Every structure is written in C-alpha cells, then in structure tokens.
Automatic annotation (TrEMBL):
Signal peptide: 1-27
Region spans: Disordered: 120-145
InterPro entries registered for this protein in UniProt: DUF3108
Keywords tagged on the record: Signal
Residues forming coiled coils: none
Keyword GTP-binding: no
Organism of origin: Telmatospirillum siberiense
UniProt-recorded name of the protein: DUF3108 domain-containing protein
Pfam families, alphabetized: DUF3108 (PF11306)
PROSITE patterns assigned to the protein according to its UniProt record, in alphabetical order: PROKAR_LIPOPROTEIN
Biased composition, class Basic and acidic residues, residue ranges: 120-131
Length: 273
C-alpha cells in the first residue's frame, strides 16, 4: 500500500469521482446523484453528478466540494462538463471543460474533439496563482506535454465514465478506456467481477461490481507517474438504475470510500435526502 501524498488530494478525488460517474444516462429527464466521500473514515468531500441524455445528445456535469481536513488542506472546488452525441457504438464527446480552484491556484481547461470526435484538441489551458499572477514556467513544475498521436481515439473523463457504465451493463467482461483530461493521458483497464449486494447508507443495493486499474501514460511528472501507476478502484453499479452507488480504494494509505447519499430524476442538482 503506497503512502498517501497530501499534495495530491485534488487529483485523487477528481479521479475517484470520475470513476464513480459511470451511469448510463438513459432517461430523457436528468439523473442527479449526490455522494459523500470519506478518507480514513473522516468526511472529506461532497460530490454531485448530473447525467442528461435526450435526442441523441448527452451532458454530464460533475462538481466537487471538499469538507473538513481535506478542505483545510486544499480548498478544492471542481466543476466539469462534458457534451457529446450518442451513436450506435457508444458515447462520442464534442466538448469538455473544467474549472477548478484550490488553496494555491485556479485552473481552467477547455477542449473539443475534431475529426468526427477522433482527436482531442485543447483550446484553453489557463493556470494562475491566487494572487492573479501567471503560474511560473519552471520546467520542474510543469506537466510533460502529451504528444498529438496520444490524443487520438480518446475520451474525456466524464464521457469515459458514461462508457464504463454502458459497456459494463452490456455484459463486457474486460475492456480498456483511453482517457485525456486536457493535461494527462491514461488508460483505465476495467474488469467486471460479477453481481454483488452491498449495504450503503442504510439501503441494500444489488450491484454489478467492477474493478478499474489506472495506467498513466503521458503528461505525468515522475512522482505522479509512480503515485498513480496501477492504482486500483472498486466501482459498484446499481443494477436497477445502471448508476454507481459506491466507489472505494485501498491503494492509498487511508482508505477512501465514496457512497451514494441521494438520487433523484429531473432535479438539478439532487437535494439532500
């Protein structure tokens, strides 16, 4: 079990929530889910995810608000949006955006998918310190660039999780999702473990249990590459709704668990239960 690096909670919670946002978004009305995240048994974050699908198009919205010690350390706020089309072969992204703020800096990323969605093209990558100055261009403090050939046939993180839900619920036993978030390129190797039953928040859910393992490829500094290599996550998808009810990992020193707190349809966002 690797040591938990307090300088990387932003990335960890973002990835965990992206892994949890793998609902199929089948309904015309939006599906809204509210999660609570715990790290080492302590309340760490409030997470909401909204999935909309109508007239051959989809939209996924993710927000993260840290709590407690995690908020004190990071002041992390994240808002991500993905828009795209639904094709006979799956979800095809058109645009992706993410705005995040932390104790030290603010970041905005926007990208689009060109060549009929086959290639990710970054439009905006703006990072500023909280004093409004540009982040220093120190080579040791910059993520390595992602080559163009590594941005072909990729999905943004939110679309990748729509696809995870779709392919898992369709009965695929193993598959790999190629993901590019505007700065980092990685693969998620997914395996369907089988049906399960889990008590979450006082309710029992019949689930499809998945395991996802991260393989960082490009855009990672050496320490981040070591931190994320072979990081494993358990994803429990409610079989009745095709949406996640729990995500957990013991890869890091402190066990992290994200559990469904409330779900609803047609409400943005889902109010607390």
């Amino acid at each position: 079990m690797r040591q938990f690096d307090l300088r990387r909670p932003t990335a960890m919670f973002s990835l965990l929530v992206w892994l949890g946002a793998c609902g199929s978004g089948r309904a015309a009305e939006p599906e809204s889910l509210s999660f609570q995240a715990y790290c080492g048994g302590l309340d760490a974050a409030e997470i909401s995810f909204v999935a909309e699908q109508q007239d051959g198009r989809y939209h996924g919205h993710l927000s993260i608000l840290t709590h407690g010690m995690t908020h004190w350390m990071t002041r992390l706020l994240v808002d991500s949006d993905s828009w795209g089309t639904v094709t006979p072969t799956g979800f095809r992204p058109l645009t992706f955006s993410q705005v995040s703020s932390s104790r030290e800096k603010n970041r905005r990323i926007e990208m689009r998918f060109v060549d009929e969605g086959e290639t990710a093209e970054k439009l905006v990558d703006d990072e500023r310190r909280n004093d409004a100055s540009l982040a220093p261009a120190d080579p040791d403090d910059l993520d390595p660039p992602v080559p163009e050939e590594a941005r072909h046939h990729v999905l943004d993180p939110v679309t990748a999780l729509f696809e995870m839900g779709r392919r898992g619920m369709a009965g695929e036993k193993t598959f790999v999702l190629a993901v590019f978030d505007g700065r980092r390129r990685y693969d998620l190797a997914v395996e369907a473990v089988g049906p399960g039953s889990h008590d979450i928040g006082g309710k029992t859910y019949d689930t499809l249990d998945l395991k996802a393992v991260m393989n960082p490829l490009y855009g990672f500094r050496p320490r981040a590459m070591d931190f994320w290599k072979n990081a494993g996550f358990n994803v429990f998808v409610g079989r009745d709704i095709g949406l996640p009810v729990k995500i957990s990992t013991t890869t890091f020193t402190a066990e992290t668990v994200i559990g469904l707190h409330a779900s609803c349809r047609g409400v943005l966002p889902c109010p607390p239960s």
